[in-house]
Write a structure and sequence with these properties.
Blueprint (H helix, E strand, L loop, with lengths): L27 H10 L5 H12 L3 E3 L9 H15 L4 E8 L6 H21 L7 E8 L16 E9 L4 H6 L1 H12 L5 H9 L5
Parallel strand pairs: 2-3
Antiparallel strand pairs: 1-4, 2-4
């Protein structure tokens, strides 16, 4: 009887156990924490990278508009959920426009867009004291270099800007606890099956 082994890659038998699972990022949180704690990478930079990796940081706008759509509100809702996890961190919103119109008009339009984002994040319960600055680049930093209308240029970008009370050194010392807070909380949550059992137990007994 011929067994179906011919299709197998022989190298799989000689590869390290678990190598097919690791996509190259295993151990990155530990390495990142070590770099922060030793001063080789700034906590603000590390948190900024994590923010950009875990949620969309950019939304776009209709031509000559600062109105938020249902789609952009959904993105900002994701941002707010992430920001809410880190009360020690401050954020800055940058407003941009496309290249249509004057510098003065576009600067004001970019500012209105950034303020619209800040207002929405505030409506989601984020303190405006943590949205430390609203900066408009107007039309000076396009994603696509074109003189015509371009939606990808009509955008706001939310970024980590620092720490509450500018006390970055204290935050550096607690960086591991900050970024792991949401994971550690998972360890104390009651398992759904246990919760069901608890609700069935008569507290008087």
């Amino acid at each position: 009887m011929v067994m179906g082994l011919a299709a197998c890659d022989p190298s799989e038998f000689y590869s390290e156990l678990g190598s097919d699972v690791d996509n190259g990022t295993f151990g990155n949180p530990t390495m990142n924490n070590e770099l922060v704690m030793t001063g080789k990478i700034d906590a603000q930079v590390a948190l900024g990278q994590r923010f950009a990796n875990e949620v969309p940081t950019t939304i776009t706008f209709a031509f000559n508009s600062s109105e938020l759509t249902q789609e952009t509100r959904a993105v900002l809702h994701q941002q707010a959920n992430w920001i809410r996890q880190f009360p020690e961190v401050r954020f800055r919103v940058y407003g941009h426009t496309d290249l249509v119109g004057s510098n003065a008009y576009n600067k004001a339009l970019g500012l209105r867009r950034a303020k619209a984002v800040v207002a929405y994040l505030a409506s989601e319960g984020i303190s405006t004291s943590r949205l430390e600055a609203v900066v408009s680049y107007g039309k000076t930093r396009p994603v696509i270099q074109t003189p015509g209308p371009e939606q990808r240029n009509r955008r706001t970008v939310t970024e980590v800007s620092g720490f509450v009370e500018n006390n970055a050194m204290v935050i550096n010392g607690k960086y591991a606890a900050i970024i792991m807070r949401n994971y550690l909380e998972l360890g104390v949550r009651v398992h759904p099956e246990n919760a069901q059992v608890q609700t069935q137990v008569d507290p008087s007994k």
